[in-house]
Amino acid sequence: MVDIQQKQELKAFDDTKTGVKGLVDAGITKIPRIFTASTIENSFKTSTSTSNELQIPVIDLKYEELQKDGVARKDIIDKVVNHGIPKEVLDDMIEGVRRFHEQTHDVKKEFYTRDGSRKVRFFSNFDLYESKAANWRDTTICGMAPDPPKPEQLTITCREIMICYSKHVKRLRDIILELLSEALQLKRKHLEEMECGKGHVLVSHYYPACPEPDKTMGITEHSDPDFFTILLQDCIGGLQVFYQNQWVDIKPVEGALVINLRDLIQLISNDKLKSGKHRVLANTIGPRISVACFFNTYYYPSNRVYGPIKELLSEPSLPLYKETTARDYVLYYNSKGLRTPALEDFKL
Length: 348
What we know:
Blueprint: H1 4-16, H2 19-25, H3 39-43, E1 58-60, H4 63-69, E2 77-81, H5 87-101, H6 105-108, E3 120-123, E4 138-145, H7 159-183, H8 190-193, E5 200-207, E6 217-222, E7 228-233, E8 239-243, E9 246-249, E10 257-261, H9 263-268, E11 278-281, E12 288-295, E13 305-306, E14 324-325, H10 326-336
Parallel strand pairs: 1-2
Antiparallel strand pairs: 2-10, 3-4, 4-5, 5-12, 6-11, 7-10, 7-12, 8-9, 8-11, 13-14
Helix pairs in contact: 5-7
């Protein structure tokens, strides 16, 4: 339960419109109380496995290899190589996010908002007022499809690269949807025809160096409310996935992208594909930069209802989840806050 004093501290932080970067620029040496994670959450940091035996599968997207191998494996998180996006585009996207967050606060404040209907926005912690503790990161969100914002609505610091990167991930999206369809033994275009990839949002996180990383999190453990995510991250590291009852480091691989399966793909696959629980540790190195492309129809005004795919159901494989629109699911997810699993509440 958030007490009155904490509410006041949260509002004071929010009203600065400068985010975590503003705290760092002010020269703080101790993190504010609102960022202090629970003792239980911090205790799990010491149980992380760094064993070399635990390897995340690498998926090579060369067409000829796909034809041979099909989609025999789909784990919680896969690293994708030979994805067709030039390295300079990946590097420019990371640098574009850096330019935005490291420009003057007065310029960034123009984009600062908690209005979820805005396609382009900057803020710190979407669940700032619902969470028990804030996370050590700032975020920009840009809804890029199916109805992209006008170029002038995008920040000039990364306008061109965001439009370019968005075009590249749309091509990669088509391949991934085909692979997931085949993994479910459905026709190749099944998920595409369900409009699982029709909309996408670029969510860019900036994690400044933290003076007390043992007391807070970059992002606390959670799953996400979309169908799947294409993740680009820099070389800093800190991403972890919960795998075989332990936290495993997902070390960055130059030129590789990370594919995360999410809540809505678990819902429509009736648990045949699982949403990956993950988190990001705070660090003293910083800034860590990541760009997550969320495939969802949140910004698309669609009344399409999603439930377990009928072709996957049979006796005794009955539906495990209630039907929902993608937008309603995201709105419910956001109202619960990052730490509370929303998908559990949609089980029948």
